[in-house]
Structure formats: C-alpha cells, structure tokens
Amino acid sequence: MRLERRLQAGPRRVHPVREDDVTVVDTHSPHPASPSGGSDWWRTAVIYQIYPRSFADSDGDGIGDLRGITEHLEHLVDLGVDAVWLSPFYASPQRDAGYDVSDYRQVDPLFGTLEDADALIAGAHSLGLRVIADIVPNHTSSDHAWFQEALSSAPHSRERDRYMFREGKGPHGDLPPNNWISVFGGPAWTRTTDPNGAPGQWYLHLFDPSQPDLNWESEAVRLEFDDIVRFWMDRGIDGLRVDVAHGLMKAPGLPDYTPDPQGGSMGGDAEVATPYWGQDSVHEVWRRWRNVLAEYGPDRILVAEAWVHPLHRMAEWVRPDEMHQAFNFAFLECPWEASAIQQVIDTSLAEFGAVGAPSTWVLSNHDVVRHASRLAVFGKNPQGHGIGPLSEFKPDRVVGLQRARALTLVMLGLPGSSYVYQGEELGLPEHVDIPDEARRDPTWQGTYGGRYGRDGCRVPLPWLSDSPALGFSATGETWLPQPHDWAALARDVQDGVEGSTLEMYKGALAHRRTFGLGAGDITWVDLGPDVVAFDNNGVRVIANLSGAAVPFIGKVLTSSAPVDSAIPPSTAAWVLPKPAAHGEDQA
Length: 587
Ligand code: GLC
Prior knowledge:
By secondary structure, the protein is of the alpha/beta class.
C-alpha cells in the first residue's frame, strides 16, 4: 500500500525535510486539514500555550499584551505549531495573574481591548493557526459584580446562592464550615462581614480568598456560562481550555477532608475520595457545554485541566459527549526513567483510546517547574512547588536541557496532540533565583514563603539578545525579573542556528507533519532496558536514558544532540530505519 501523507499547515516556511519516501500534499487551506478530516484537527494538533503577561509587551508597561501576541504570530507559524492556547486575558484584578476574572466578556486594559482580541483571532486564522482561549468557571474574582452583589445581599438570597456561602461552626459561627484547605495555602473559607458590620457567613475559595467558588448546582450559574461560552464562540474562538475542570462540583454536605500530604494540592494519587475534586456530577456540566459548542459545528473544542488520577479517571473527561481533550498530567509528572515513560505512554494510549479520544502530551505549563529544570531534579512536581534561592535542590542546567530536549523528541514523536509551553522551544530553564520581594504568585504569600510558587516558569520571554528586556518590552520593563544570562537563549541567537533548541523544535515539528506522526500508531522496539524506542509511521523514535551509547542503523531525521553511528546517553533521535527508495512501498 502506498502511503499518502498530508502537510497539515497553511503557508509555512519550508524546512529542510527529506521527503523522498513520502508523497506530501500541502493543502494551503486557511485552517489546517488533518488526515482524518478538518473537524478532527485537534486529534493531532500541536498547540502552543501563550501566557499573555510574559509573551510580548507592545506598549512598554512591562506586561505582555494581545497586540504583542499578534505581532509575533508569524514566529509561531515559523515554529510549525497548529494552534495557540491563551491563558486568561479577561478583566481581572490580577491577584492570580488573570485566573481571577471580574468580567468574562471584557479584555483587561492591561492586555488591550475586545478589538485587539478580534484582531488576534483574525490574524491567527489568516495564518492557519487556531485559537483556544482559557475559561475559568470554578470561581470568579471577588471583584466580579455577582460576588459584590452577594456580599451586600442577605444570607440565603438568590445573589448568595450563586456562590458557596455557609454558616460557620461553633456557638458564634466563628469556625469555618469545614476543614478544607486552599490550594494556595491557608483555610479554604473566609468569613464575611454583614452590611451592619457584624461577622457574617463564610464563603468557599479553593484558591485565593479573592477567588470565591461558584455554586454549580445553580441553574443561574450554568446559564451564565452557556452565554459566556457563546460570547467567545461568536467571536471565532476555536476552543476553550477549561480551568480546574475537576473542581466545579462539591460532595453533598461538604464533608471534612484531610488531604494526603504526598498528594498534590490540585489532587494527587489519593484524591479519589476528595470531596472537592473529580465529583461524578461534574460530567453533566461538560455534556452541556459540548452541546453548546455543537451549535457552532464540529470543529470547536473543549480541553480539560483536570488533575485527576489515575489515567482511566482522567479519560472520563473526554468521553465522546464530553470534552475533546484533557491535559495528560501523568506524562508531565513522569520521572526521567525509561520504564516509567514507557508505562505512562502505554497507559495513556490505552485509556484515552478506550473512550475514542486522542491522548495529549505535555511537559510544561505556567503552573509547574519548566521541564528543562524539573527533569534534572525530580519528575513529579505538584502545582506551586517551585524552586527558589533556598531550595534544597538546584537543577543542573546542562543535564536538565539535555533531558528536556530528548524527552521533547519523545513527546513530539507520539500520536495524539502535544502542548508546547512558550519558551520551551528556546530551552528556557526555570528562573530559580527570583528575589522574594519580586515574587507575584499568591502561593508564596498564602504559604508565608513555605512554597515558592510558579513565578519561575512565568518569566517574560527573551526575543532579542541585545535589546532592553531582551526584546520583550521596548522600555526594558518586565513584571518579573529576567535572569541575566538569558541573552544567550534569546530567539534571535537561536534562529537558523543548527543544533539550537529552537531549530530542533522547528525540525521536529516539520518532520512530525511530513510523516503524519500525530495520526500514527506506535510499536515498541526493544533496544535495551533504559532505552525508550518505538516506531510510528515509518519513523523510529529512540531515547537513550542509559549510561552507554545505543547503536542504530538508518538515517537520522533529527536528534536532540549530535549523533553519528550511536545515540549518546541522554539523547533522542528520530531515525528512518530502512529508507525506502522513491516510489517504493513503505508499509
Ligand atoms: C489553574 C490555573 C492556575 C490557577 C488556578 C486557579 O490551575 O492553571 O494558574 O492559579 O487554576 O484558577
């Protein structure tokens, strides 16, 4: 059987891909077509996460904005991704960097205007990029009009019923309604003061006190979010990344719960019994949203941020009538161990496959230590457990980057959809030396300095080695300090330079498209105990986690470090094991 593979992209810069053994069809459509049809684009897509505060600042205030993103979209086309996901840019007091929304239908002036959002969406579409926006349904900001109305309304009123208000315990109600603790540290309840100055009811906030949890039992809340979803769909958004999608429903009666100290704050291995994560009743919300999206046709998607374990529970979020994708945090949390990596890949493909969903793959995001640092110190890294000046372990930058590049080639060689977090294509490490006074993550304050939080992975990007703020902002302002030695990692220093991390990503993404790896299927190849090796659509992916070089036969398509007749330790390569002559049957 002759294989015909398609390029999935619209206009793109040509990369030096050897295509002599495949027929390549470049569709040049405004939206990428995928081998299994345009509406299934998400099954194989590589989606680039933009953290707007730190991507590019067009107005010089030190905080990235929508225009900055639009100005750089060509760079993402050049990189070779299919879509972007934007962390929240809505009106917000920014106490949790925009995950505290005060108006879901407005753009925060820090980031621009609704017109800027429209221009960004149109600009991306014209370049063949899809756009996924974040949505934050578990909680609003305490500045949201609804919460302000609730505070000035009586207990048990319609206004209070939109949130989780409860009476306190104890004779005077001065103890919280239960023992839940917040993800950012401290109790998950805050007491209100009645309009007459007397102590009043308590409200639940699984995160910061400025992020009151909504009551998803309330039909008023559900209707409001149906409308917000439509608002952004009407503006042409291709999908929504749903924040804390495992948190909306709480167990009846809000029973006490003491989390396993080993588990992550967002839900760990023992979270099955947690009364505020992963309740079965949350799934009806996703079925409802799926129906709202269906009004817009088959190609708009929902992506779950659901920190649930094990993978077969996570797969419940992507059953055919629920969401389309869920972030695969089990892959992100995997240590640098061949057997663990192999197992998580097998389980992911099996569990997501069992419900007809593609697996996703992700190594970094705005909540965890960047994988170019994490892989040198630990695998599992619960949200908010950052690295700082006094941390016991300091990641070795050389080891971390070597491993990160190798594991990235494993990730991009897998079938399904991959997420790339801004800056990982430059090999950025975690910024581990942010001074305490510059920290902005509420985790740092909420734990009284007990946890460094997530600032270290959110540092503004270095674009130009020789410009103020490394090209992030013309004035040199940055909302978080950039490390002094990041000039060497700036995009302009890596662009077009063979062997740079940026060129490795570009090359891998181009080959991934040419060989249709996202739509492929893997077969494991046994090359030794500490080697992860599999075949996917004629490409052999080999990652050497052992201490000795691994010999191979074939033609190297791309590699994470220089390779000749053997693959050195901590290195991965994509190899054509038996290059077929032009026109020869490959299958
Ligand atoms: C999600 C976001 C995180 C945020 C939290 C509360 O986990 O990714 O950044 O702080 O939700 O909204």
